[in-house]
Structures are given as C-alpha cells and as structure tokens.
Amino acid sequence: MKVEQAKKFLEEVIDQRTPVQYTRYRGKVAHRASLGGTGGAAGRYPVRVARSILRTLVNAENNASQKNLSTDSLIIVHAAAQKARPIPRQFPRAMGQMSIKRKILTHVEICLKEVKD
Q1: Of residues 49, 43, 47, 50, the one with CA closest to residue 26
Q2: Which pLDDT belongs to residue 42?
Q3: CATH numbers and ranges of domains, the chain
C-alpha cells in the first residue's frame, strides 16, 4: 500500500468512518455493512492502535525524507508488531495484600521503499 493511502485509511479509522475488518479473533464482533456483502464482515474501530501506527508511519516517512527519498513514491514493504517486555506495577488489595498488574508493551516496525513509477 502507498503511504498516502495508509495515512488516509488510518485517519478514517481514527474518525470512525472506516472500520478495520477482523479476519481472526472475531467472535462476538459486530458486522459492518461498509465492509461489503449483505450482512457485512466483522470489524471494529481500533482508535488507539490506529493513532500509534499513524505516528510510527509519519516517523518512517520523515526518516525517508531525511535520506533524500521521494515521499510521493513510498510504499509499505513490511509492517510487523512484536510483544515487548511487560512493565509490572503493584496495586493494593483487601486485607493488606498487593497484586501485580502488568502493562504489556508492543514494538511496531514499518519498512518503506521508494518505487519508480
């Protein structure tokens, strides 16, 4: 996908105009008519994720422009997310006990390539 198309899609997801189709883990996920078909396909609007990925995509585009690549002809070649280490923290419970909550972080990587038209 071209970078401009991806940025437009992510902005529409943030504004909740275009849903993201779920192909896996779609149990009890509502169907959206805008995803096609008579009943539509399962989909949601992951706003927080879309914001993070859009920020990463803009950073990758800025890095490409610093390397003197044409930002108009960039395409996304590779995008991946890996699980990062959790950040543990404690919170109090009843009877003077403590429990641990873990905030699970994610590493997102996006590779862009300049394509000659």
Answers
A1: 43
A2: 93
A3: 3-79 (3.90.470.10)
SS3 73: helix
Strand partners, 89: 101
| Predicted confidence (pLDDT) per residue in 84-111, tens digit | 999 999 999 999 999 999 999 999 999 9
Cα–chain-centroid distance for residue 72? 22
What pTM did the predictor assign? 0.86
From the list 13, 75, 69, the residue with the least C-alpha distance to 45 is 13
- Taking residues 7-22, report their average pLDDT: 96
Characterize the bridge pairing of strands 31-32 and 20-21. Answer: unpaired
* Spatial contact of 47 and 20, defined as CB atoms under 8 Å apart: no
Q: Which residues contact 32 (CB under 8 A, 6 or more apart)?
A: 19, 21, 40, 41, 42, 43
